[in-house]
Amino acid sequence: METLDAVERASGKLAAAAVAAMDEQFAWFGRMPADQRASVLLVAQNGVAGFTAWLKDPREALRLTTDTFRGAPRDLSRWISLRQTVEMVRVSLQVFEDLVPDLAENDAERAVLSEAVLRYGREVAFASAMSYASAAEARGAWDARLEALVVDGIVRGDAEESLLSRAAALGWDPASEATVLVGNPPSDDPPTVLYEVRSRAARVGRPVLLGVQGSRLVVVLAGPAEDAVDLEVLAKMAAAFGDGAVVAGPTVSSIAEAHRSSADALSGLRAVVAWPEAPRPVRSADLLPERALAGDPEAEWQLIEGVAKPLEEAGGALQETVEAYLATGGVLETCARQLFVHPNTVRYRLRKAAELTGRNAGDPRDALVLRVALAVGRLSRSRGLW
Question: According to the model, what pLDDT value does residue 73 have?
Answer without folding.
Answer: 46
